[in-house]
Design brief:
The complex is a heterotrimer. Chain B is built from 28 helices and four strands. Chain B is mostly helical. In chain B, the strands form two sheets. A two-stranded antiparallel ribbon of chain B has the order 1-2. In chain B, a hairpin with a 7-residue loop joins β3 (about 485) and β4 (about 495). Chain B is globular, with a radius of gyration of 28 Å. Chain C is about 75% helix and about 0% strand. A two-stranded antiparallel sheet of chain C has the order 1-2. The chains are: A mainly alpha, B mainly alpha, C mainly alpha.
């Protein structure tokens, strides 16, 4: 059996990539994908723990995370569409009307 | 079973009236405003009478409503207490208050003009005052009493400055407010110390524990002495005693019904009430009692002399009020609380009457108050004259009128006081003569003799309408009869209804206190002393007649001869000027040159507000720029924050 | 077999939420049949739903049912019920002021109310949940509804931008939060907070995984309440969102997030107290100070109030740091007070929005005392309350919070908090000065619909009443002490 730590470290690396991608990328869609990456790394952690400690709660949690990620994606994309209609740009750095 | 009581309605009804008139009064007609004010006061008065009559067998009644503040071990409830003492006060306040409200409807009816502050506002304030005063006397703990205490102070300030566009009126309002603050500071300290010492501010536990404590020795300053002295400072502010009396004469700037209700009959007696309520504490502190008695006696004499030479009718009455309050303090100081409250009650009637009659005169004279511009008004204003005369006889202590009984009681108890009893009596005795003198000076100058205000004014002078006369007559009946509840022993065996009624409140005082005056010497001595005080009162009236009525030019002659004395009295011993040089000027100097120019402008504004304001605003401007408006930067901060927390936790451990 | 997982009691425990869900869907269906002129009926439907739910909640409270349900995933104790009442009050007030505002903005549709109700359901479950799965779903239900509401003005660029920022950062922060949750699950083998607390207590205190879990949880949760440095979404979202929604999210979701924080930190992470209390203390100081100082230099009233709301979150953290009965009561009473005073002041901001004036600049209020004296005086009362000056309700809230940290001997924190309260006076009174002392420029009458007037009356009465006679409200707030059981 693959040791637990392998999964955890992989998940941590994925999570970090997601975080860094979110901070670095300018395109809204890419940022959104980074968030999905973070959520998937969390899912991996859950499943790994669940398997390791023989407890099903973690796997159930993963289902809910996926459901919610889907809901967020729907809402998020709608918001992005509305934003694009008004601005004709997906560059987040240009959306800085409100500041200071 | 506890009887069902509705004490809470007694103060709440005037509050309702005040709120209604205050919020909506602007839109109401004057008749509606008057109806609301009278109805709320009237119902409150009827209820008060009903409650006192039905409950007098089961006193004391404590009505606990709700916990108002609960902070640590301090619990303050909205608890009302009806016992003999508070029922006397409630009756005085509501009955006199109702009569003055009725009077005000007539008095304020013709008030117009640029200085007028608004009909509805006047009644709203008056009702609010009733609420605060009733809260003060009905409270069952010191905090609630203090709420009422501050409330009446606020209303007093608002009503003195009622003609707020008039500079002198708003100045007088401020003077009253500030002087009272000094007293209230003492009172607040007193309340803090009470809480510190007893761990509660409810009356019953404090008094129960205080009663069990030993009486502190005379001329020593134990804890109770300090506390009672602080309370007494509060009382001197509210009840206009030396050294804080200076605001009361100026308070006459307010409308006359206000002077009658607040600055004669009710609010100024709050100090006396508070001391009587705390009688257990005071009786355990003979040092304080001695100070109270001495201050009371000196104030009585001092204010009486100042009243002698004033020309303004309301000011004379104001000094007379201070002087009479001095009597009440003297009574409390010699442990004769019941006598003090008795005088408070009779005084409420005759002094309210005097003020209202003065208002009626003022009405007739179109606001003129200088008694030397009046004269012979007796012919024009019969009701006013007769009622004023009755009140003057009462305050002068002529047998048969209410003031006689109460003043006599105080003088007799003062005489028997173990400490300086004779001296205190002598001062009170002289003051009695002065009282008669200055009162009958008004009577003879204003109501008798020739009119000195010119023809036009004479034609204008007229008797006031019925709505003003009715309260005068009713109060006159009170001034005449209120004394018969307590008659000295040597007159047909005496009546002691009043002191018997109050006895439960002062019970622990008479059993434990040293102030228990050994009534020695018997009735003959009392009879003799009474005769002496009647004699000096008659002498006062006689002198007034000789100087001001029989030969008015004698007054001027006397004034010429006693120029320095007259000047001293006329300028009120230059006390205002003395305070001005001693306190106000140095404070002004300090505040202008040190506090304002250096501390305020330089240190606070310069370094503090502007400096720190500059720094803070600069910081604010700088910090704003952290908010770049870019999502990625925000996310960067979130990540940085998380990293910083990790670093913090790692390096901490 | 079935009975092991489902009991009839379970339905009763979430009865108010079921009602709310029913009404949320009802609003959307009824909306289809309504003419433009009758859209105000949507608000009525939603209000009826809230009233019904409040009644159900009241019955639930007095019936003292078995409070735990769904196989111990939900704990409807008096802490939860107290906060649910706060949410219901806040939501009802927000719905009252919404109808007129939406028609001015030209976006008067039923889904708005449905979303508010759904968000309310999410908040209710946030305070009831004791299991991390429930809590996470509830949190997301609340948050997703909010994302849509913040961007509700589809054609308004600011609203779009606010929604985008709020959504991206919100999703990002819940990702971080979720990572913490997964680690917590890993080290304790359970998602029940009470079990987690037991397991954590058995572990050594310097566990690196526990440390990462605490950090990510703290970051994710502090984001929701706008703790510095996780606060930056808040001013932008508050400014860009429709004012009624800002009113809503400044009170109810903040209270819900705080209740969630209380549950997680006081129940679940209690064993790690020594590590999170210092962290929160630093965050608390930063939050109060930065919120207040930045508020000083704002010229937009919505942004000013947003920064003031950040500062208030800082004060509220004091209660959590103290973590004793006084602190929890303080947080509970503060949110009740905050619901009234903050909705009161935001209602006035909403009423400033007129046909041709956005009305969100402080300068728009110049000389308000002349044209709208009533509104100016109300504004003064609410500002005094926000500043915590007696006899307004704000004083009572601050008193409890400040007293709680003094009780636990965090004197430095108490001093900094008091200094901050002093700084806050500066910008609150700047608004007062503009309203009362400036030349008259405010010519237009404010938009005072019956709903706005009702909301103002209710908020004013309670802001003063709680200040003058706090006792019954404090007793009500002490319901929240069931948190410790």
């Amino acid at each position: 059996m693959v040791p637990l730590n392998y999964f955890l470290i992989l998940a941590a690396i994925l999570f970090s990539i997601g975080v860094i991608g979110f901070v670095m990328k300018r395109n809204v869609i890419t940022m959104f994908m980074s968030i999905e990456l973070m959520l998937n790394s969390v899912n991996l952690t859950f499943v790994a723990f669940s398997r390791y400690i023989q407890n099903l709660s973690g796997q159930i949690f993963v289902f809910f995370v996926m459901v919610i990620a889907a809901a967020e994606a729907a809402v998020g994309l709608a918001i992005i569409v509305a934003l694009y209609r008004n601005r004709e740009s997906l560059n987040v750095d240009e959306a800085d009307r409100m500041k200071l | 079973m506890e009887p069902r009581t509705y004490l809470w309605l007694i103060p709440i009804l005037p509050l309702l009236g005040a709120t209604l008139n205050g919020v909506l009064g602007r839109r109401f007609s004057r008749a509606a405003v008057s109806a609301i004010a009278l109805l709320s006061t009237g119902l409150s008065c009827a209820l008060a009478i009903f409650e006192v009559v039905t409950l007098s067998d089961v006193f004391p009644i404590i009505e606990r409503h709700f916990t108002w503040i609960q902070a640590g071990s301090l619990r303050v409830g909205y608890d009302l207490l009806l016992d003999p003492l508070s029922s006397v006060m409630v009756l005085v306040v509501t009955v006199v208050g109702l009569l003055i409200h009725i009077y005000s409807v007539g008095y304020m009816a013709h008030e117009e003009g640029p200085n007028f502050g608004g009909f509805y506002r006047f009644f709203s304030y008056m009702n609010l005052f009733m609420f605060a005063m009733l809260t003060l006397v009905l409270a069952n703990n010191y905090v609630l009493m203090f709420v009422g205490w501050e409330g009446v102070g606020l209303c007093s300030y608002l009503l003195i400055g009622f003609y707020f566009r008039k500079q002198s009126a708003s100045d007088a309002g401020k003077k009253a407010f500030i002087t009272n603050r000094i007293g209230d500071f003492g009172l607040t300290l007193g309340l803090f110390s009470l809480f510190w010492m007893f761990g509660t501010l409810d009356y019953q536990p404090i008094f129960a524990r205080a009663a069990a404590m030993p009486v502190e020795p005379l001329h020593q300053f134990g804890a109770l002495t300090i506390i009672t002295l602080l309370l007494f400072i509060g009382a001197t502010g509210k009840s206009a005693q030396i050294p804080l009396y200076v605001w009361l004469p100026d308070a006459m700037e307010g409308p006359t019904p206000v002077s009658a209700l607040i600055h004669a009959a009710t609010m100024v007696t709050a100090g006396v009430y508070m001391m009587a309520r705390s009688n257990v504490l005071f009786s355990h502190a003979p040092t304080t009692l001695l100070i109270v008695a001495v201050i009371g006696a000196i104030t009585a004499l001092f204010a009486g002399t100042m009243g002698l030479v004033q020309r303004d009718m309301k000011r004379i009455l104001a000094y007379s009020t201070i002087s009479q309050l001095g009597y009440m303090f003297l009574a409390c100081g010699v442990g004769a609380y019941a006598a003090g409250i008795f005088h408070l009650m009779t005084h409420a009637f005759f002094k309210a009457l005097l003020f209202l009659a003065a208002g009626s005169v003022m009405h007739a004279m179109r606001g003129e108050l200088d008694i030397f511009k009046m004269g012979g008004l007796r012919k024009k204003m019969a009701t006013t004259y007769w009622t004023f005369l009755i009140a003057s006889l009462a305050i002068a202590g002529i047998p048969g009128f209410s003031g006689f009984f109460s003043k006599d009681e105080i003088l007799w108890r003062a005489f028997n006081s173990p400490e300086y009893g004779r001296l205190l009596w002598a001062v009170g005795w002289i003051t009695a003569g002065l009282t008669a003198l200055y009162m009958f000076r008004i009577v003879f100058v204003a109501f008798h003799g020739e009119f000195r205000g010119g023809d036009e004014a004479w034609h204008h002078a007229h008797e006031s309408p019925r709505v003003i006369r009715v309260p005068l007559v009713l109060l006159a009946v009170g001034a005449l009869l209120a004394g018969y509840v307590q008659v000295p022993k040597f007159i047909f065996g005496g009546v002691e209804k009043f002191s018997d009624f109050l006895a439960p409140v002062f019970a622990s005082t008479t059993t434990h206190g040293v102030a228990e005056t050994a009534v020695n010497g018997g009735h003959h001595l009392e009879l003799g002393l009474t005769a002496l005080s009647v004699l000096i009162a008659l002498a006062g009236i006689g002198i007034a007649y000789l100087v001001f009525r029989a030969k008015p030019e004698r007054a001027d002659l006397l004034e010429q001869k006693l120029k320095p004395l007259h000047s001293l009295l006329f300028h009120k011993y230059w006390i205002d000027e003395l305070y001005s040089t001693l306190f106000i000027r140095p404070i002004q100097f300090l505040s202008t040159w040190v506090l304002w120019k250096i501390v305020d402008l330089f240190v606070i504004d310069g370094l503090g507000v502007n400096g720190s304001g500059f720094v803070v605003r600069g910081l604010g401007r700088g910090l704003r720029h952290l908010q770049s408006g870019r999502v990625r930067a925000y996310a960067g901060w979130v990540v940085l924050g998380a990293v910083l927390i990790v670093a913090f936790l790692v390096f901490k451990v | 077999m079935f009975n092991q997982y489902f009991q009839p009691n379970d339905i009763l425990i979430i009865y108010p939420e079921l009602l709310l869900a029913l009404f949320a869907m009802g609003v959307m269906i009824i909306d289809l049949f309504l003419d433009r002129a009758w859209k105000v009926l949507n608000a009525f439907t939603a209000l009826v739903g809230i009233a019904y739910a409040a009644y159900a909640l009241y019955r639930l409270k007095s019936n003292a049912l078995n409070l735990s349900g769904y196989n111990h995933a939900i704990l409807n104790d008096s802490f939860a019920i107290y906060f649910q009442f706060v949410f219901l009050i806040a939501t009802a007030l927000v719905i009252l002021i919404s109808a007129r505002y939406l028609s001015i903005e030209g976006e008067n549709r039923g889904d708005y109310y449905a979303l508010i109700l759904l968000s309310l359901i999410g908040m209710n479950f946030m305070v009831m949940g004791i299991d991390l799965i429930t809590l996470y779903i509830a949190l997301e239900l609340m948050a997703v509804s909010e994302y849509i509401l913040v961007g509700y003005l589809r054609t308004n660029r600011q609203s779009n931008e606010a929604a985008m920022k709020f959504f991206l950062l919100g999703a990002f922060s819940s990702g971080i939060l979720l990572y913490g949750i997964s680690l917590l699950y890993g080290i304790s083998g359970s998602t029940d907070l009470r079990v987690i607390a037991q397991r954590l207590a058995e572990r050594p205190s310097h566990d690196p995984i526990a440390l990462v879990a605490v950090v990510t949880l703290t970051a994710g949760l502090l984001f929701k309440i706008g703790g510095v440095p996780f606060h930056q979404w808040l001013p932008d979202a508050y400014e860009g969102a429709p004012s009624t929604i800002t009113t809503f999210i400044s009170v109810a979701p903040k209270a819900a997030s705080f209740a969630l924080i209380l549950r997680i930190f006081i129940v679940g992470l209690k064993p790690l107290e020594t590590s999170w209390v210092p962290v929160l203390s630093v965050v608390c100081v930063l939050t109060m100070t930065l919120g207040n100082i930045t508020a000083i230099s704002q010229s937009n009233i919505k942004r000013l109030l947003a920064y003031s709301s950040i500062a208030h979150a800082g004060y509220l953290l004091l209660g959590l740091i103290a973590g004793n009965e006084y602190g929890i009561t303080g947080i509970a009473i503060y949110f009740l007070v905050y619901a009234f005073m903050n909705i009161g002041i935001w209602t006035l901001v909403v009423a400033m929005r007129r046909k041709d004036l956005i009305g969100d600049q402080i300068q728009d209020m110049a000389g308000m005392i002349y044209k709208n004296p009533g509104a100016a005086v109300l504004m003064l009362v609410f500002l005094l309350s926000l500043a915590g000056i007696p006899p307004t309700a704000g004083f009572i809230g601050k008193y409890y919070l400040f007293a709680s940290v003094i009780q636990t001997h965090h004197y430095v924190l108490a001093v900094i908090a008091v200094l901050n309260a002093a700084i806050s006076l500066y910008y609150y009174f700047r608004v007062v000065v503009v309203m009362f002392m400036s030349e008259k420029t405010d010519e237009e009458k404010m938009t005072l619909s019956p709903g706005v007037l009702t909301s103002l009356a209710v908020t004013l009465v309670f802001t003063l009443l709680i200040g003058i006679y706090p006792e019954p409200f404090i007793r009500f707030a002490q319901n929240s002490l069931s948190l410790f059981q």
